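Repro case for the chain-ordering regression, as requested:
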Amino acid sequence: MSRPASKASSKAPKLRAVQRAFAAGIMRPLTSGNRMQPKWHDGKSARRAVAKFIKPSDQLDSFERLEIYNKQYWFRLIDCLYDDFPALRVLIGEKKFYDLTVAYLTKYPSNSYSLRDLGSRLEKFIVREPKWVMPHATLAREIIRLEWAHIVAFDGEELPPLEIDDLLGSDPTRLRMGLQPCITLLACEYPVDMFVLAVRRREEPRGETSNAVNERASRRAAKQLTRPKPGKIWLAVHRSENAVYYKRLEPEAYLICAALQKGLSLEAACERALRRKKADASFGATLQGWFAQWASFGWFCRFR
Amino acid sequence: MPANRFNNFTEYGIGIGLRVPHYGHILSRKPTVDWFEIISENFMVDGGRPLAVLDSILEQYRVVQHGVAMYLGSTDGLNRDHLKKLKRLVKRTNTPWLSDHLCWGSVDGSYSHDLLPLPYTFEAARHVAQRIREVRDYVEVPILVENVSSYAEFHASEMSEWEFLSEVVEKADAGILLDVNNIYVSSQNHGFNPYDYLNNIPHHRVGQFHIAGHSKYDKYILDTHDHPVLDPVWKMYDHAIRKTGPTATLLEWDDRIPSFDEVHREALKAGRFCEELLREPTRI
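-- result from build under test --
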């Protein structure tokens, strides 16, 4: 995510005034007929307002010239969210998805130079305004979290993985191991992974998002486009050899990973899992297996 | 291909834009290409496939960075996070120069993700030139500014677009990435003679050319980069290189992208204009 821009220049006040007027025009939602709104912000004629700063040409009046940019703005940004959140779109339908994206971008215009970050506040938006995804508020939120986690896993940061040598002689009561920054852990009320996989399988991948998940999805999954029924799952969305994977975790495994991610010591993280599941003779071996697998995925890094 | 200080004294020839649909072909077939242009922002990420692909490309090819989100004309302060990531990428690619557009795209922290036109005023020229200097001082490579295609003009403008471009690059001591297709598109939309543009810019500052295709609508032309280069643009390109000398040239094809070979063939047409020019007897 980009930080907020540093202090604005005060050396070009006229330029800034023109840019504010231009942006105010192009960032307003289009009408239902995909035209620029006829009324300006103050309720007066947009044609008159735009004519004050945009010159007409032989072919187009001022309003029509700004309208080209108004359309480009919305088409480009909605297209980007269309690509980034395909499962949400399938869940709520194209029309509701369009209305949601317009409302979202109106409330939260892009604050990053990169279109990659465009959907970063979509979950926050629907938590505050669930009406856009009703009656599927919980399911929609979980799908958004998974689709955003996919983006993070695709090109997020990966630190040098911890090696055995890094851990030798460490005191487990004090040892803190981080999870790779590109990993997102999700505790879900619905099996959203299968739904998202099915959608991605059905749709041609567009743009630069990872398609490994698509490649791995089964034919059976492709047909499962019915809305998921409630059923708790625990997921790690991670990257391996530049492909994105959704890995289901046991609830205890999820607790351990979440605790490590928060900075708890290795011992404290394992204790969390033990509190949930009564320890028996086999649990030690299970734990060992989990850690061996996670280490082989390169999930562990130094805690920051 | 004349080298100059704006393209860091390089002679790069004919390049094409590196685009996702061609990754597989390029990495497996390793076609002979003078250089690739990358969109900087696509690779200003922290990890994953984009950087892995870039590193593989860098093992085989010369890469030049072209930005779409520096927004040199914006009145917001320069985005330090953007600059930091840009410089990190510059070190990775070893790009001999860096280009971005003579436009703005964000205000009050909100980004349009578009290349928006500037009013051609002296105030704007001073402002943009100052920002170009700041960026160049930070990234430590020459900066080329590219003319954008536009669909609107401002009452506030005090000069023509080519006068504005000249004013900016002279004040910033920067180079020009001359997009011939953009000149053509804007000339049709605004009703000026594109050859006035080509004839009246500081030719010694041109460090690179862009060529591309466009789409014609009823009342305006849109810079869509989804067609081969059209004849009027080739004629302008021929005229332009006679002013500048054959210079590093890049074909942009960003939508409805055909096979790699088709894009490459189209790009190499530019090379034929350059060869033709070099065969002509020197005029004294």
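Ordering looks correct now. The mean pLDDT of chain B is 95.
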